[in-house]
Amino acid sequence: xxxxxxxxxxxxxxxxxxxxxxxxxxxxxxxxxxxxxxxxxxxxxxxxxxxxxxxxxxxxxxxxxxxxxxxxxxxxxxxxxxxxxxxxxxxxxxxxxxxxxxxxxxxxxxxx
Length: 112
Fold this sequence. Notes:
Elements: H1 2-14, E1 21-31, E2 37-38, H2 40-43, E3 50-57, E4 60-63, E5 75-77, E6 82-86, H3 88-93, E7 95-98, E8 103-111
Antiparallel strand pairs: 1-8, 2-7, 3-6, 3-8, 4-5, 4-7
């Protein structure tokens, strides 16, 4: 029985049943230290359930609970960091702000 279930699982992965598909790309620029920005392009799709977010220039701070970060509060994301946000509510509630000079943040969002 276990062998049969394992085969079905492997076949589902090969057929693409386990793959996540990138559907949207969004560049947030400039991300300033005055107002937090969200993933507006990504959240228009109610099925989006993950986002990969790259901090390209200037350290940033972020929250994924609907709270607006400030230049001094929120999770610190240094330049070069890639964040993985999982779950539709977290993607919808994600917001980011620069800690100093204007930043460029790139996001790729998708769904199964």
